[in-house]
Amino acid sequence: MSDRPVSVGALLRATAPDRLPEVIAEHLRRHFAADRVEVLVTDLTLRRLAPLLGPPGPDSDPGALRCFGSQRPGTETDITGRARLHLPLSCWGERLGVLRVELPERPEPEQADELRIVADELAVAMRAADRMTDRYRRAQCLERPTMAAELQWDLLPGRSLGDDRFQLAGLLEPAYDVRGDHFDWSLLGDRLTITVLNGAGDGMESALLTATAVNAMRNARRCGSDLVEQAELASDAVHSRYGGSLHASTLLLEIDLISGWVDAVDAGSPHCMVGRGGEIEQIRLEQQLPLGMFGEARYEIERFRLEPGDRLLVVSDGVHAAAPGGGTTFGESALLTALRRTRLQPAGEAVGTVMRSLREFHKGYEPEDDAVTVCLDWRR
């Protein structure tokens, strides 16, 4: 019989942060008679998986990719009766990767439940260990990021979050060469704060601008400030550093997960849309000054309301204003089509669909800007 779930958690907590895959593989071999075990983590693009136990590089297992996309366990059995299980590794809605386990036979339901608990325990441990070892980040980077991209990725809160009230996901591209675009979020009780930011400039200067604005907003938020105070503190911080020569276009949202009311401060270029009943409508907000454009700028909150089942989408100008070759913009000609394709997809897959459509739109041209897409499904 396998150990009880608490034993797995205690085992992982007693393990060095960089040794979690080896310890869980040994546990599965000893208590579940597993022949082979692999821990796969997603790369920065969320399109490829990389092994932690096997040789470095992308893994081509289609079953693992299906499991990662659907976030549902899968079992395949060959003609000899041997079973290959794929178990999602996720923590508080954050998709980390897939645990692949090969067994002599298909597991009984009770054993399958225990294996899912092992995967859940491993995901929590890996999420906690990420700040204490470079092992998992190294596997994620199938290419070398620029210094600006490294800074931007380290600022992100994660790439998905959720519970029974909502599902939230964000994607930042091009993954290995981003500059000033960014998203942030925080959940506190029934209030969910989301910001999408587009920093001006290029390279490290743009990344440092974004870091200044994001950390100023976090500082205000963590001290209990509302959206106006968050925007004003960040604007003052950016202006103090750059004197108005650089600024950060930002959309700040705070969603009441009980009532659906959304407080918003529109300080620039990110666009906000709501999908409801098969239709997609842009939320028209009064565009206020980008953060840092002028000293002592003042901001006002606007409000709109979500309905249960609504999908809220926010895209940076690298999405809606993309115009490869100087033609029509993605927002004018292709964005709504891309968003309609996401109607039946979970939030984590929806952001990928939008970004794939954007890459197809750029076919033959290099993107001139980085891009952010954030998707929130409010279930109530």
UniProtKB/TrEMBL annotation:
<protein>
    <submittedName>
        <fullName>Phosphatase</fullName>
    </submittedName>
</protein>
<dbReference type="GO" id="GO:0016791">
    <property type="term" value="F:phosphatase activity"/>
</dbReference>
<dbReference type="InterPro" id="IPR036457">
    <property type="entry name" value="PPM-type-like_dom_sf"/>
</dbReference>
<feature type="region of interest" description="Disordered">
    <location>
        <begin position="52"/>
        <end position="73"/>
    </location>
</feature>
<feature type="domain" description="PPM-type phosphatase">
    <location>
        <begin position="163"/>
        <end position="378"/>
    </location>
</feature>
<dbReference type="InterPro" id="IPR029016">
    <property type="entry name" value="GAF-like_dom_sf"/>
</dbReference>
<dbReference type="InterPro" id="IPR001932">
    <property type="entry name" value="PPM-type_phosphatase-like_dom"/>
</dbReference>
<dbReference type="Pfam" id="PF07228">
    <property type="entry name" value="SpoIIE"/>
</dbReference>
<keyword id="KW-0378">Hydrolase</keyword>
<dbReference type="InterPro" id="IPR052016">
    <property type="entry name" value="Bact_Sigma-Reg"/>
</dbReference>
